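Recall the central idea of this unit: under ordinary conditions, the amino acid sequence of a chain determines the structure it adopts. In this exercise we apply that idea directly, starting from the sequence alone.
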Amino acid sequence: MRIGDWSGQPVLLTFWASDCRSCLEEMPELAALFKDYGGRGLRMAAVAMPYDLPNRVLALARDESWPFPVGLDPLGQLSGALKVELVPNTYLLGRDGAVVASRLGKPDFRELRETIEQLLRER
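Accordingly, the structure predicted from this sequence is:
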């Protein structure tokens, strides 16, 4: 998975860690977002923090059968670029790659859905 491959599409990135309870609690709602909007053009990934063990991240994603891609950021390039230090941390990027919305902590999923709808209507 390369985020650059998604240029021209809205992108939802959620940064998480396998030992973060609130991160894991929001995954079902993120899965619902992906199921509702993935086919309409929203690109999405759950990006594990650099300190998380890759084998643990991948095993958890496999065991939970999350429908969206799970990314590793072992060198902290993506989390560093967005200055992510704490999780959960969610970023919604517009078609031009600019940050449209961000939220530290659990997102307001109703508000997030409204913003995604707006982005998907824009061409």
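The mean pLDDT is 94.
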